Amino acid sequence: MFTRPGSELDPELLDALVQTSFAVMARLSQAAAAHDMSLTQLRMLAILRDRQPKMAELARYLGLDRSSVSGLIDRAEKRGLVQRTSSGDDGRSVRVSLTADGRRLDPGLTAEIAGLIAPMTHSLTVAERQRLAGLLGRMLP
Amino acid sequence: MFTRPGSELDPELLDALVQTSFAVMARLSQAAAAHDMSLTQLRMLAILRDRQPKMAELARYLGLDRSSVSGLIDRAEKRGLVQRTSSGDDGRSVRVSLTADGRRLDPGLTAEIAGLIAPMTHSLTVAERQRLAGLLGRMLP
DNA sequence: AAATATAATTGGGAATACGAACTAAACTAG
DNA sequence: CTAGTTTAGTTCGTATTCCCAATTATATTT
């Protein structure tokens, strides 16, 4: 009668998920900061690594308002990391893509992230890490 | 020779951790927003639920600068969620604690969070969820 | 051709976060 | 016991992030 649907979740699992996520995010922020970037810029970079979306698409990916993305791209463009190119067929829409400079930033960032996150997994055996990767992978869309 | 220490991390696991974390954070933000709060305020609330730290301690918990926390508490205080009480022995230090109003906010928020995160785990069996909780738990400090 | 819809930008405003400078209280030396 | 230093918080200035509402310019519909 009083079971809330979708809420049958072991409190321990909830807590573990939330705490792990905060730990991961903290390290991601740290990695970003080490390259003078914000978390949002990091995400933007990761998205643009293999896509050249229009502004609205990028906004959807990031879960942000279009206007927020406008400013985000403004600043990134001013820093020379990304560029706007007018999307051929539709005169209104704009495609965003990484510049060579932006792309150059990527390997260092990826290494930095790996280096910061890896230690988190050190208390697990290799077999356990594989099992964890499998479980998390199955949870994702 | 060229193995970077601490970087022996399966790319799949790295990716799964990062993606899961973003998914969890998005849901946490959503839960916070549903109660007109920010993610940082949510964290603050969770910390104050079972602690009455001094400002500097709270800053350490949150990984923020002292000055950032000053403003955070200013606004939360103005909203009636927390209160500052001068810590007896040391005339400089201030203890932060939840008000009755702040405490009242908690159950609803917790339920909201559980309700939003639970669906993420639905693609796992109950046994798998337990294993996941165990693995994540062992990763945390 | 006029009305409507869509893509992005602009402007206003609040919250978040940092660093540097400041105030007040508490130690520490001499 | 006073002078200097450290510590706890706050304040100030600035940048970023984010939203909402209004605007501009191009497309689409009718």
Model description:
2 copies of one chain form a homodimer. By secondary structure, chain A is mostly helical. Chain A has one domain (25-136): Arc Repressor Mutant, subunit A (Orthogonal Bundle), CATH 1.10.10. Chain A is 62% helix and 7% strand. Chain A has 6 helices and 2 strands, in the order ααααββαα. A two-stranded antiparallel sheet of chain A has the order 1-2. In chain A, a hairpin with a 7-residue loop joins strand 1 and strand 2 (94-98). In chain A, helix 1 (11-34) crosses helix 5 and helix 3 crosses helix 4 (66-78). The first copy, chain A, is globular. The model of chain A has no long low-confidence stretch (mean pLDDT 93). At the A-B interface, helix 1, helix 5 and helix 6 of A face helix 1, helix 5 and helix 6 of B. The structure holds a DNA duplex (30 and 30 nucleotides).
CATH architecture of chain A: Orthogonal Bundle
Mean pLDDT, all residues of chain A: 93
Q: Specify the structural class of chain A.
A: mainly alpha
Task: Write down the domain tally of chain A.
Answer: 1
- Number of E-type strands of chain A: 2
Class of chain A in CATH?
Answer: Mainly Alpha
What is the CATH homology-level superfamily of chain A?
Winged helix-like DNA-binding domain superfamily/Winged helix DNA-binding domain
The greatest inter-chain interface is formed by:
A-B, 48 and 48 residues
C-alpha Rg of chain A, in Å?
A: 19 Å
Report how far the terminal alpha carbons of chain A are from each other.
30 Å
Spans where pLDDT lies below 50 across 5 or more residues of chain A: none
The number of helices of chain A is 6
Element order of chain A: H for helix, E for strand: HHHHEEHH
